[in-house]
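Exercise 3.2. Students should predict the tertiary structure of the chain below and write it as structure tokens, then compare their answer with the key that follows.

Predict this chain's 3D structure.
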Amino acid sequence: MEKIQQAARIIASSSDVLVFSGAGVSAESGIPTFRGEGGLWERYPANIYANLPGLAGVFLLSKDRIASFFSDALRPLVEAKPNPAHEALARLEEAGKISAIVTQNIDDLHLAAGSREVLEVHGSAYRVRCSRCGSREGRSRKDINDVLDKLDVPTVSRRQMISALNEFAGKCLCGGRYRPDVVFFGESLPMDTIEEAADRASRCDCLISVGTSVLVYPAATVPAIASSCGARVIDINPTETTLSSTADVFVKMEAGKAMPAIADEVLRMTN
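Answer key:
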């Protein structure tokens, strides 16, 4: 409880609090992590499944395998709901204590919980982006479920799978093809988003790193920028991270337990 109090005091006394969130927050909503024990990359090697050429190769060699990958990666995502950590962060933003959330997650759960200022540095599973002009369109949970239902049929042919994927993605008015608006391995992060994240990190006076090992670069430079510019750092994770030893406070707890307790204390201190 002492660490909760320390974290709350720092947040309550700060004027610009930035949050950096990772897969550990989403895992508590039932979304599997990609890395680590039991992660998606244990069953589907990242060097193949985390890039578009690799996915295309699997599609040609094993349509059943590609269907199972999409199902395992996306079904939990569209079925997930915000957990107490998402809700606590939204409460703190509504109270004016959080300026923005920089998230590595692609599940939109921060937005679903009510947070408004969310920078998605790895994109969103609920958007597609034109490969030619860069314009974006949203896709709903129903849209994703519908295409998964079409793919996840034992008798589905490759032609039917291509038709379902093309129907989901669609074609841009410029004539270009839409693709998922997520960052695959080897691709650059959206420059406008990462630049805004870096700018906010340089101006904040407190950074909360929650549910992330802080190992995925270049997104992981966000906490380093904040710290180098004088911000106090709070690290919230059930295991030690690369930030834990240098953070002003390390709260060794799951996000879903720590954040509601911290939010309650901050709101008590500031009301």
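Discussion points: The chain has two domains: 1-30+82-122+188-271, 32-79+126-182. The mean pLDDT is 93.
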